[in-house]
């Protein structure tokens, strides 16, 4: 699936409503938006602005109530559950603030898991997992379990797991919310390097200033509407401890 000739995601007149009592709550109100290949962008706004709902639709975890969301050439609202799962498994990586690692699996097994779902050959899996763990600086932790890791290390495992299948887009929902400043900046610098080296598109949902400083495009969401969309200068990477 190749989106290199067009947007990774194209949202047109996107509306999302949720039932509430006898009525409904409108989380997204007519979003028109394009995310292009290779972007390092963020949907920025306060809690309740619709950021996570927007990412969930881009990630095929939810569907529009009105309008359209075309991601990697597929119309999200027209996909069956299986087709949506296939799109996620092959082409979309996720990073969550709670890490969502499998506690009984080792670091190696957590990162390998997406490749098992894709039925990749054993040697291809091994090479890809070891490459990603080297990228995130955890080659010495491959046999550790999540309970033996720090929060920053757990999030680095989550990044490796999201990237191991070389997805078209990685969606990161408040990925630094549970981390201190030094760990946050280490995580963000890793993702910037991956964006630059692999050309992977990153899209964040955040209200964390530490994340916002690294974005190259900021999409401000307020009350379910895009109120500002601006490109920013390429950030200078911060050194840990400063």
What does this structure look like?
By secondary structure, the protein is α/β, with parallel strands linked by helices. The protein has a single domain (38-64, 80-231), classed as 3-Layer(aba) Sandwich (Rossmann fold). It has 7 helices and 10 strands. The chain has helices at residues 51-58, 81-91, 107-117, 122-135, 151-163, 181-198, 209-212, and strands spanning 9-20, 23-35, 40-44, 66-71, 74-75, 92-96, 169-173, 201-206, 217-222, 225-231. It has a 6-stranded mixed sheet, sandwiched between helices. The chain has a 4-stranded antiparallel sheet with strand order 2-1-4-5, covered by helices on one side. The protein starts with 8 loop residues before the first strand and ends in an 11-residue tail after the last strand.
Cα-atom radius of gyration: 18 Å
The CATH class designation is Alpha Beta
**Structural class computed from helices and strand pairing:** alpha/beta
Main pleated sheet: 6 strands, mixed
* β-strand amount: 25-35%
What's the SSE pattern? EEEHEEHEHHHEHEHEE
Mean pLDDT: 93
Query: Tally the helices: what do you get?
Result: 7
């Amino acid at each position: 699936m190749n989106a290199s000739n067009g947007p990774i995601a194209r949202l047109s007149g996107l509306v999302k409503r949720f039932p509430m009592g006898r009525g409904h709550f409108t989380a997204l109100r007519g979003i028109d938006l394009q995310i292009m290949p290779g972007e390092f962008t963020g949907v920025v706004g306060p809690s309740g602005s619709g950021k996570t709902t927007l990412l969930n639709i881009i990630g095929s975890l939810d569907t529009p109530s009105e309008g359209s969301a075309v991601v990697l050439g597929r119309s999200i609202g027209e996909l069956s559950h299986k087709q949506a799962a296939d799109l996620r498994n092959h082409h979309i990586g996720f990073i969550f603030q709670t890490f969502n690692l499998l506690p009984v699996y080792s670091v190696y097994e957590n990162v390998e898991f997406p490749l098992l779902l894709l039925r990749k050959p054993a040697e291809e899996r091994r090479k890809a997992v070891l490459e990603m763990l080297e990228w995130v600086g955890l080659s010495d932790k491959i046999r550790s379990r999540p309970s033996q890791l720090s929060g920053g290390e757990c999030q680095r495992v989550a990044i490796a797991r999201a990237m191991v299948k070389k997805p078209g887009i990685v969606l990161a929902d408040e990925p630094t919310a549970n981390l201190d400043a030094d760990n946050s900046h280490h995580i963000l610098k890793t993702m910037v390097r991956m964006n630059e080296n692999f050309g992977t598109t990153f899209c964040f949902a955040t209200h964390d200033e530490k994340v916002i400083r690294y974005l190259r495009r900021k999409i401000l969401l307020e009350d379910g509407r895009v109120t500002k969309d601006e490109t920013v200068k390429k950030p200078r990477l911060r050194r840990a401890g400063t």
